[in-house]
């Protein structure tokens, strides 16, 4: 597995490795000269086309990529989208002679972290590079951790869109305020590994909080897809999704509660959309509201796995017990449901005082607990939200709670759902090594 370039220290500063992508040689040279005045910047490569930029980004693993928008072979927006997925440890700063708001919107949707106009003011250029790099450090560190947590993922084929595992994981609780969005965002982040495509869907149609937790907002949401569900366009879907700075793809909930009426008019549409794009992703994590309606039930029906979240209190367990009875009536297999206990705060912000132990929970619900998230200081969660990243990214020490437990649950889900496929991929990989010479001589792949 290729590793990102780890920049050395320059004095007390960390060296920031930079790749320049612009089709005008004079522009590349001028920016390179500007950057040469700062001791912590190092230009490790330059490219004259979007295609060459993607290739060099994969080879060099730079910290920062300064990308022109208008290029002849592939524009910077498409190149940024591909780099964001292929090299998630790199952060792209888009640059254009035009300060058009539409350029800015499209650049951010593609995954760019900032936008500068040409020619850049030197101080603005320096400050932007340093700030983008500072914010990207925990993202890059997360990818390095994730690439080492499950080494079995390495044999997986580099499959294209439409040839993915398509596991749909729905995070649900019949009781509000028990941390479903926290678990959904961290699960999605924890499942992101090399060559694993993950989509996070906010299906709380009235009061979705995924955008708040990840500091994301955009002009398009799931509402834009509902009207065209019968004539579904994958390209439109990709344009509607947002790209978080970590590289995670996100489909946002309606921007306002009243917009949910358009979903309720066609309640099975969200499930249909997920089915149509499932094979473009290895995992689709769906955050939901606690309301049981046709929208939720249609999504639960197609789910590969339901993460059922409860707090260790009588009120929460009562509701979960009712839902488990409903799942039994719907004839969902027991292994479709994984129970998670989250020691959260209640709606009034008070720490829960009536805590029921795990043994009694399992006995009452007749289900084993697959994940347990301990109660921690709310400041950990608030710090993550203020940074616009999941808790497992905001907190660098993965031995601390709740990071340790969230990573463990993500790893459990990955192994549970991808274990067989990884074993098959490993077997194929071993067979390929044994037969490699003969296969190449016969011209077969």
What are the segments in which pLDDT stays under 50 over at least 5 consecutive residues? Answer: 1-6, 149-160, 345-353, 431-445
Amino-to-carboxy terminus distance: 21 Å
Mean pLDDT: 81
Rg, Cα atoms, Å: 23 Å
Helix content: 40-55%
Give the DSSP E fraction (strand runs of 2 or more residues): 15-25%
Tell me, briefly, the overall form: globular
> Structural class of the helix and strand makeup?
alpha/beta
Q: In which order are the strands of the major sheet placed? A: 10-11-9-12-8-13-14-15
Total strands: the figure is: 15
> How large is the count of helical segments?
17
The largest sheet is: 8 strands, mixed
SSE inventory with pairings:
Blueprint: E1 9-10, E2 13-14, E3 16-21, H1 25-36, E4 41-47, H2 50-60, E5 64-68, H3 76-86, E6 91-96, H4 101-110, E7 114-117, H5 122-149, E8 167-172, H6 180-190, E9 198-203, H7 210-214, H8 223-226, H9 234-240, E10 242-243, E11 249-251, H10 260-264, H11 269-277, E12 283-288, H12 294-302, E13 305-310, H13 314-329, E14 337-342, H14 358-365, E15 369-373, H15 378-387, H16 391-394, H17 403-441
Parallel strand pairs: 3-4, 3-5, 5-6, 6-7, 8-12, 8-13, 9-11, 9-12, 13-14, 14-15
Antiparallel strand pairs: 1-2, 10-11
How would you describe this protein?
- With 445 residues, the chain is of the alpha/beta class.
- It has 17 helices and 15 strands.
- It has helices at residues 25-36, 50-60, 76-86, 101-110, 122-149, 180-190, 210-214, 223-226, 234-240, 260-264, 269-277, 294-302, 314-329, 358-365, 378-387, 391-394, 403-441, and strands at 9-10, 13-14, 16-21, 41-47, 64-68, 91-96, 114-117, 167-172, 198-203, 242-243, 249-251, 283-288, 305-310, 337-342, 369-373.
- An 8-stranded mixed sheet has the order 10-11-9-12-8-13-14-15, with helices on both faces. A 5-stranded parallel sheet has the order 4-3-5-6-7, with helices on both faces.
- Helix 1 links the parallel strand 3 and strand 4.
- The longest helix has 39 residues, at 403-441.
- It is globular, with a radius of gyration of 23 Å.
- The chain starts with 8 loop residues before the first strand and ends with a helix.
- 41% of the residues are buried.
- Residues 1-6, 149-160, 345-353 and 431-445 have low confidence and may be disordered.
């Amino acid at each position: 597995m290729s590793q990102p370039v780890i920049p050395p220290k320059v004095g007390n500063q960390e060296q920031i490795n930079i790749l320049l992508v612009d089709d005008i040689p004079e522009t590349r040279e001028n920016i390179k000269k500007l950057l040469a005045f700062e001791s912590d910047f190092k230009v490790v490569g330059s490219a004259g086309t979007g295609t060459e930029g993607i290739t060099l980004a994969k080879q060099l693993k730079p910290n920062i990529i300064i990308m022109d928008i208008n290029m002849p072979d592939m524009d910077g927006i498409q190149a940024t989208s591909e780099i964001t997925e292929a090299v998630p440890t790199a952060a792209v700063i888009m640059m254009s002679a035009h300060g058009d708001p539409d350029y800015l919107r499209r650049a951010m949707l593609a995954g760019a972290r900032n936008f500068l106009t040409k020619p850049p003011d030197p101080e603005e250029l320096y400050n932007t590079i340093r700030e983008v790099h500072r914010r990207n450090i925990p993202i890059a560190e997360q990818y390095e951790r994730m690439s080492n947590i499950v080494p079995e993922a390495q044999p997986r084929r580099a499959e294209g869109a439409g040839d993915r595992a398509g596991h749909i994981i729905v995070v649900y609780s019949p009781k509000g305020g028990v941390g479903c969005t926290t678990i959904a965002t961290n699960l999605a982040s924890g499942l992101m590994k090399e060559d694993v495509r993950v989509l996070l869907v906010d299906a709380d149609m009235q009061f979705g909080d995924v955008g708040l937790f990840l500091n994301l907002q955009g002009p398009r949401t799931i509402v834009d897809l509902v009207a065209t569900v019968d004539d579904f366009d994958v390209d439109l879907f990709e344009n509607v999704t947002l790209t978080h700075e970590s590289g995670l793809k996100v489909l946002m909930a309606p921007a306002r509660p009243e917009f949910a009426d358009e979903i309720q008019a066609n309640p099975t549409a969200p499930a249909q959309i997920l089915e149509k794009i499932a094979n473009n992703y290895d995992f689709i994590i769906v955050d939901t509201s606690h309301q049981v309606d046709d929208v939720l039930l249609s999504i639960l029906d197609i789910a590969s796995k339901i993460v059922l979240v409860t707090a260790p209190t009588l009120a929460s367990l009562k509701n979960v017990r009712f839902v488990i009875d409903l799942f039994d009536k719907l004839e969902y297999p027991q292994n479709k449901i994984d129970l998670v206990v989250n020691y959260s705060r209640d709606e009034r912000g008070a720490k829960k005082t009536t805590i029921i132990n795990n043994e009694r929970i399992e006995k009452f619900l007749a289900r084993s607990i697959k994940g347990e998230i301990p109660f921690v200081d709310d400041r950990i969660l608030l710090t993550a939200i203020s940074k616009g990243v999941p808790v497992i990214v905001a907190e660098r020490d993965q031995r601390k709670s709740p990071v340790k437990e969230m990573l463990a649950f993500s790893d459990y889900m990955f192994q549970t759902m991808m274990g067989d496929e990884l074993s098959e991929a490993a077997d194929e990989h071993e067979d390929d090594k044994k037969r490699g010479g003969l296969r190449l001589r016969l011209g077969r792949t």
